[in-house]
Design brief:
16% helix; two-stranded antiparallel ribbon; 2 domains; alpha+beta; elongated; disordered C terminus
Length: 113
């Protein structure tokens, strides 16, 4: 009878499951919408629960990964009032369409540090 090894335990499940999670990690690293320096993790957990005779045991295997979350999308909003006096918001770079702003009086934004 051959003793089990990591590569043949549960009919080779550990390497196969590891490779699946590694592929997820690699795709997450390549995703430009995630933080490049965030730590990614792969966790292999094996539980072994023997029966009372200590002759057999139930095993449970899980391989999971922790990926970097997506980077939030950021932009600016410009606030003004419309023709009816209601407050309105416009996305960044509204150009000359921004109500109440003319080329003679350009909008000046404070620079953030």
């Amino acid at each position: 009878m051959k003793q089990i090894t990591l590569s043949d335990f549960q009919k080779g499940a550990i390497p196969e499951l590891f490779e699946n999670e590694l592929q997820k990690v690699l795709e997450n690293i390549a995703d430009i919408n995630t933080k490049p320096k965030a730590t990614r993790k792969i966790k292999i957990e094996l539980s072994i629960t023997p029966d009372k005779t200590r002759k057999t045991a139930e095993t449970k295997l899980s391989v999971t990964s922790t990926l970097a979350p997506g980077v939030p999308s950021e932009s600016f909003l410009f606030f003004d009032t419309d023709a009816e006096g209601k407050t309105c918001a416009l996305e960044d770079d509204p150009g000359p369409e921004l109500p109440g702003i003319s080329e003679e009086q350009p909008l000046r934004l404070a620079k953030s540090n």
